[in-house]
């Protein structure tokens, strides 16, 4: 009556295994292919100074992307980072001449993080939709910046007599300071997200908010802290930007929110929340940086990069979805 | 019963997931007009087999024949077109849409210009709902319905198609007794129309009542098929788990300590009124009643998820205010919630992380979570609850329904609470593990925990409780001691016929 079929060993590499590998590492594979192709097109692509150059120019996007990673994993969006970064840049430049760098920096951090706290309050405690709130804040903060500056550009008057340029232009142990700052921040925030109770709670809130509440997690507080984290990173980015150029327009961060979001998605974070990681975001940032650099090196006009960036993002998201369902194309649902 | 040609045959189905061989050459068939039970422990592969049948998974090997013709179920739509309809174990309804929209999701009747024909839709859904004895209309929002009613919507969805084979994957897990009667009537009607029914359930009683044959899976392998009329529960259990089970009602020796939790005159809007009871250390108080009697709402109030309008909650004799789950947990209260998918688990997280989530802040070494401590807790409860998962890294969403439930139970047991509230603790859990969990609850009571068990299953309440609180429509009708309770008096009390206890 009972017949038990023999357990047969499943045959080596099947489709499911490939699909699973792609789901985990697809972006990385694509990135390596990309590097190979572009290096063949222009060998300078992999020269040390070019690599350092790319990383260095990615640091501002990168620093902001670290903070936005928290927000995205918690299941929300942050489209205000670009405009908030203009604000912190302008503020720190202005205060530099009024208070000196030692006071200007903490003051600017405080002001920027107030904005983050406000957004966090609206999204976390009042439970307003994050897309609406941060899109609105994008515009509101832009207005705030213009009011602050009176519409004028900001410049540091005495560019020689200050040490403020060290963050954006300094070199320590042969490495540019902005890269060091980015690396250090990535390390600290990576540990915070991957290893601490708070980090775990961020994943839980994004993965299933109701279950998180039922587990005794203060959901509103977690979301609030994610936005605070995001604004903290924006303040860093503003400081790097100001210190690099020692002067700035009101609109220096305009449009960066999309590049930041692109980097986070390229890193494989899901916009639904609950997945993503700091190291993945760093990879996403580097991919974006190298793609844009590669396009310039092969001689394309710089504005082509806007289109290509978009195409790459769509490809990345598609690959991600396809790997998860094990098929490239699914005609239904 | 005459031997009829099967309407559906599955031959040598093999399905592997990375690291798991979920189905290992399974044969199965259904004849027209029969109810064929598919049984097996949690994780045996029942749902997976049905998903292969319904085109949601592609088998690695094997074939599906309908009316002796091989078919390939490339996707759920192809399965529907072949007359196979699956009612899922896990509900899959769009919360924000109406009942009618959900029932006809993707196939809404159209008028000219592709506009939805709302009138026809309402009429057709209304008819089906009436057939199912539902007390809600087609325009009701899904999100406002109880789990049982959502289940009825899933069933309504299946009835919109002319089917050759209908699969019910644990349909009764969250239904009340009266709803079950309705469901069994529906199944009889389908049977009369010559539809083949596949019926998955962990409940022996109903399986023996309504099925013609029983097939058993174990660890993904086919173990055999029995004629229901010629077999016994013991034989089926033995086939399922390889041993027979001691299902005798263990005498509940309680060593009742002092009062841990007392609730006085608790009321909350029109959900429940004037609720008073005590739970002592070392005892289990069962809350029995129909779905909607207000039991879950009381539990949620004690856990800080709802505010009460009147009354007091006292722990160890001191009045406490509990305004959030955080405060409840700090006061030593744990709640195993009613719905594992929505309230209990973060499906995308792994087993270990889910289990340790409420206490993650305490499992630290310096600023960091101690992974080792976490794994220890997971392994401990994985063993005690016999959770079947490839490893602690497995994503909870990939576990079988019953094993997911065990993770939720482990999550709250591992908090070592003073007061443990469990809401439908064995929903979807196989017979072996069910008695395991009952024993565990008794064992915990023996260790001095104060426990509240909310259940819609009478045998469960009778098995584990020292005292039973019978509720009807938001009120406590009567409190029984284990010694005095009988099935009849319990049924009488929860139907609201007897009036409330005179004694307060
Ligand atoms: N998508 C998936 N990915 C990986 N493993 C899976 C997946 N789906 C099912 N499994 C595994 O296949 C096995 C069989 O699961 P299945 O859901 O079929 O069990 P079941 O018999 O329905 O159990 P239950 O009674 O608990 O519902 C389990 O070990 C489960 O972990
Ligand atoms: Mg199942």
Characterize the structure shown.
Chain A: It comes from Roseisalinus antarcticus. Chain A: It is a multi-pass membrane protein. Chain A: One of its GO terms (molecular function) is transmembrane transporter activity. The complex is a heterodimer of chains A (333) and B (504). Helix content of chain A is 71%, strand content 2%. With 333 residues, chain A is mostly helical. Chain A has 2 domains: 1-32 and 318-333, no CATH class; 47-300, ABC transporter involved in vitamin B12 uptake, BtuC, CATH 1.10.3470. In chain A, strand 2 and strand 3 (175-176) form a beta hairpin. The longest helix of chain A has 27 residues, at 15-41. The two termini of chain A are 41 Å apart. The relative contact order of chain A is 0.19. The model of chain A is unreliable at 1-12 (pLDDT under 50). Chain B has 3 domains: 8-241, Rossmann fold (3-Layer(aba) Sandwich); 247-332 and 417-504, Rossmann fold; 345-416, no CATH class. Helix content of chain B is 32%, strand content 25%. In chain B, strands 6-7-8-3-9-10 form a 6-stranded mixed β-sheet, with helices on both faces. The mean pLDDT of chain B is 88. The complex binds adenosine-5'-triphosphate and magnesium ion (MG).
């Amino acid at each position: 009556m009972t017949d038990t079929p023999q357990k047969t060993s499943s045959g080596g590499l099947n489709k499911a295994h490939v699909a699973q590998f792609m789901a985990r590492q697809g972006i990385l594979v694509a990135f390596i292919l990309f590097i190979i192709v572009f290096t063949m097109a222009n060998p300078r692509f992999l020269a040390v100074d070019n690599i350092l150059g790319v990383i260095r120019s990615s640091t501002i996007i990168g620093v902001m992307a670290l903070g936005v990673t928290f927000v995205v994993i918690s299941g929300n969006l942050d489209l205000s980072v670009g405009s908030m970064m203009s604000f912190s840049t302008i503020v720190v430049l202005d205060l530099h001449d009024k208070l000196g760098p030692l006071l200007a920096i903490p003051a600017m951090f405080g002001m920027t993080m107030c904005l983050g706290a406000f957004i966090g309050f609206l999204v976390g405690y009042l439970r307003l939709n994050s897309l609406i709130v941060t899109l609105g804040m994008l515009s509101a903060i832009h207005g705030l910046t213009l009011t602050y500056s009176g519409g004028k550009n900001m410049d540091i008057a005495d560019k020689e007599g200050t040490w403020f340029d060290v963050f954006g232009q300094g070199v320590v142990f042969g490495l540019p300071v902005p890269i060091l700052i980015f690396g250090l921040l990535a390390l600290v925030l990576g540990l915070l997200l991957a290893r601490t109770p708070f980090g775990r709670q961020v994943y839980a809130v994004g993965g299933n908010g109701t279950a998180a509440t039922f587990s005794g997690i203060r959901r509103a507080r977690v979301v609030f802290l994610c936005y605070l984290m995001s604004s903290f990173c924006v303040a860093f980015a503003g400081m790097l930007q100001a210190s690099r150029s020692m002067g700035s327009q009101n609109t220096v961060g305009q449009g960066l929110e999309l590049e930041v979001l692109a980097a986070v998605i390229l890193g494989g974070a899901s916009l639904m929340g609950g997945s993503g990681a700091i190291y993945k975001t760093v990879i996403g940032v580097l991919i974006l940086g190298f793609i844009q650099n590669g396009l310039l090196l092969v001689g394309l006009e710089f504005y082509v990069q806007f289109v290509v960036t978009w195409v790459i993002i769509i490809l990345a998201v598609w690959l991600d979805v396809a790997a998860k369902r094990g098929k490239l194309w699914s005609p239904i649902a | 019963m005459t031997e009829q040609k099967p309407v559906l045959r599955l031959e040598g189905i093999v399905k592997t997931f990375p690291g798991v061989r979920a189905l290992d050459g399974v044969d199965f068939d259904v004849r027209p007009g029969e109810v064929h039970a598919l049984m097996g422990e949690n994780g045996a592969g029942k749902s997976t087999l049905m998903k292969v049948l319904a085109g949601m998974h592609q088998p690695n090997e094997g074939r599906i024949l309908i009316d002796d013709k091989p078919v390939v179920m490339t996707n759920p739509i192809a399965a529907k077109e072949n007359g196979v309809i699956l009612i899922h174990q896990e509900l899959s309804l769009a919360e924000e849409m109406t009942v009618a929209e959900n029932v006809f999701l993707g196939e809404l009747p159209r008028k000219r210009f592709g506009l939805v024909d709302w009138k026809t839709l309402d009429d057709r859904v209304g008819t089906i709902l009436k057939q199912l004895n539902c007390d809600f209309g087609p325009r009701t929002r899904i999100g406002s319905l109880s789990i049982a009613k959502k289940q009825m919507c899933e069933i309504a969805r299946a009835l919109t198609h002319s089917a050759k084979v209908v699969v019910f994957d644990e349909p009764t897990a969250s239904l009340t007794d009266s709803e079950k009667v309705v469901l069994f009537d529906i199944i009889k009607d389908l049977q009369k129309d010559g539809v083949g029914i596949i019926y998955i359930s962990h409940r022996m009683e109903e399986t023996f009542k309504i099925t013609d044959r029983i097939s058993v899976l174990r660890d993904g392998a086919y173990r055999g098929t029995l004629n229901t009329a010629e077999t016994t529960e013991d034989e089926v259990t033995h086939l399922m788990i390889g041993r027979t089970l001691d299902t005798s009602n263990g005498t509940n020796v309680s060593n009742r300590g002092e009062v841990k939790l007392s609730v006085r005159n608790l009321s909350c809007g029109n959900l429940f009124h004037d609720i008073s009871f005590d739970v002592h250390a070392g005892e289990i108080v069962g809350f029995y009643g129909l779905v909607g009697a207000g039991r879950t709402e009381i539990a949620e109030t004690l856990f800080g998820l709802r505010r009460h309008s009147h009354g007091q909650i006292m722990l160890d004799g001191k009045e406490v205010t509990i305004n959030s789950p955080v405060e409840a947990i700090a006061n030593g209260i744990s709640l195993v919630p009613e719905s594992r998918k929505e309230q209990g688990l973060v499906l995308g997280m792994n087993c270990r992380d889910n289990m340790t989530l409420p206490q993650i802040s305490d499992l630290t070494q310096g600023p960091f979570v101690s992974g080792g401590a976490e794994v220890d807790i997971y392994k401990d409860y994985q063993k005690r609850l016999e959770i079947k998962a490839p490893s602690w890294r497995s994503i909870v969403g990939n576990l079988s329904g019953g094993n997911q439930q065990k993770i939720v139970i482990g999550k709250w047991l591992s908090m070592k609470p003073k007061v443990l509230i469990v809401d439908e603790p064995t929903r979807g859990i196989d017979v072996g593990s069910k008695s395991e969990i009952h024993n565990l609850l008794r064992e915990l009571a023996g260790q001095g925990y104060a426990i509240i068990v909310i259940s819609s299953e009478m045998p469960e309440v009778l098995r584990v409780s020292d005292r039973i609180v019978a509720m009807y429509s938001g009120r406590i009708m009567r409190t029984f001691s284990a010694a005095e309770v009988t099935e009849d008096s319990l049924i009488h009390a929860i139907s609201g016929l007897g009036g409330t206890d005179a004694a307060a």
